[in-house]
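Here we describe the complex-level prediction in full. Unlike the single-chain runs in Section 2.1, the three entities below were treated as one system.
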Amino acid sequence: MNALLDDLNPAQREAVTAPPGHYLILAGAGSGKTRVLTHRIAWLCEEQGLWPHNMLAVTFTNKAAGEMRERLGHLLHQPTRGQWVGTFHSIAHRLLRMHHQEAGLQEHFQILDSDDQIRVLKRVIQELELDDKRFPPKQAAWMINGWKDEALRPEQLPAPKQLHDHHWHAVYRAYEAACQRAGVVDFAELLLRAFEMLNQHDALRMHYQQRFQHVLIDEFQDTNTLQYAWVRQLVGSDGLAFVVGDDDQSIYSWRGAQVENMQRFLSDFPGARLIKLEQNYRSTGTILKAANALIERNQGRLGKQLWTAADSGEAIDLFGAHDESEEARHAIGQIMRFVEEGAKLRDCAILYRSNAQSRAFEEALIQKSLPYRVYGGLRFFERAEIKDALAYLRLLANPDDDPALERALNMPPRGIGDKTAEQLRNQARQAGVSQWRFLELQPDAFSNRARSVLSQFVSLIQKLRAETHALNLAGQMEVVLEHSGLRTHYEREQKETRLGADSRIENLDELLSVAARFQADAPERDVGSSELVTFLSYAALEAGEGQSQVWEDAVQLMTLHASKGLEFPLVCLSGLEEGLFPLQRAIDEGGQALEEERRLAYVGITRARRRLLISFAETRRRHGEFHYARPSRFVGEIPKSLLKELRPRGGHAQAPRFGVEHMETPSIRLGARVRHARFGEGIVLAAFGNGEHARVQVNFADVGTKELVLAFANLQLV
DNA sequence: TGTACCCAGGTTTTT
DNA sequence: CCTGGGTACA
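The structure predicted for the assembly as a whole is:
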């Protein structure tokens, strides 16, 4: 028998060796889904005599794509060059580069990241003379991306019912025009363009349908409407789809993911079969029991039960802290104990619902002098100084790139103010050309001073172009940094503000070495693209690591969302409080929203390999105000027998007291039961302000939540 | 052009 | 409470 199958369990083997057909692999957390995906490809090659290039493998993140490529390299005993393994976006991008003409794009089109997109939208909204308070650029980005994810162009939108909608549609149209003029595409556009291109060009579509006999998709529960349509399109009538996902780990509905796509797959793809992977190789039996018990509360699941051949392991620790700092101290105490038992700091993760919660943990970690790493935040290629440098390179690659030009125009400052920039923008738009083109065509369309600074800018770019013409990527980068004045500018800034180690200059130097490395590694070059264009695409599509010192042994802090796909020997799942996790919004909405919160809890629990600590705080400062909360319903949904309560609850001994000074009223605690003359009895949920302005939020049994001014409410403690 | 203050707003995030 | 963005001045 094929050695590929040696280390697979029966269900995995069934999936890997399944006869030709469409398959939905329902793969639970830690059930080896990536292994199944890669082995399937290898098996098709070895047993069915197919070539790797007859397959298309799609993931959501670069990291997942990288992992898959690496594992495939091992299995196939050959480098994975030329193989189509990548993210939805990178594959769409590749198609567009190869067929830019059919897609209606200029050859050296650039990619707009979300930050750039918002800048462009801000301009567009200004140009339409709309109030950016009523039409916030961020919301515009959100809406436009949403429309694109639904494959809706402005013409296809339902007719606006109100003036407001009418304006939004106008923003969408103007934004599209601006992007087209500048030759830039945003992330959602990559997918939509590629989809439309294949739709409109039968020959192209048939070519790729024929070429990709097998289409394999990872994390299928995260696909949106457009991605689903895209998969159907590429599979066509003769191709075969092999999709892997877990409906219980669908936590991205808020950005357009449709879990329904899993059910839909079974009916849309003829003869599609479902294979479940339920054996878990990650966690202890106890942890899995907890996860199963929790997720069973959700309706309409495809349904699966994780099991393990491993021991049941230790009980799950449950800790009810008085406040968030005690919660943090306790978690860190557990981590230190775990490390004393021989674990590494990097084996320990602290997970939370929202980023703001990291603070208390960071403070506690600093106090104990433990190194830690917070996930999220600015990535390398998103840093301002990096984007400044890249803006020049983008201009060299494509002078029509307006967003890049606007960025480079006055960075470093060279006296081209907002007024001049606005004039240039407006005139170029009226002339229907890019800003660079306008500068070339009509350099005299400005006042004397503006004309002189603008012409200096034009000569600078022309000089850079001439100087970089014959250079390789790293050389071009070097020239840009030196001659644009960026390096000098940031050096001066560094001197003046005496910035510390993580300075902008160091980042610029890092950019140089990234470019040198990129060149040396010579990743597969897109057909007809220069090294520079390839690098710029890479920078946009792969924003890089969030922080340096990834190699350092440190406690890992991240949101639950960021933890998906990872695993840790010890997991501290924090903030299990009604109103925080699940969030109040989800509680108010109920239904799907609440179920998604539960899936998030499920994701958190299933990250843990050996030990799990679940904690909550009775009081917590949020936005500077004290809040009181009951333990999360999710705690109650885990069978008591699996939990070890580290401190039996009862009494809020240290909850802060609130009162009005110099008054007879006894001070009031969060969580205290109080009586009001008119509203009856209730529980104090939150307290704001102090002195005579002190207010409390009370949840009354009869009339619901009210906010009262303490000095007048005359509350009695019950 | 840069800096000081004021105010709103504060889930989750990849590409 | 803290951050980011916007406005008002030097």
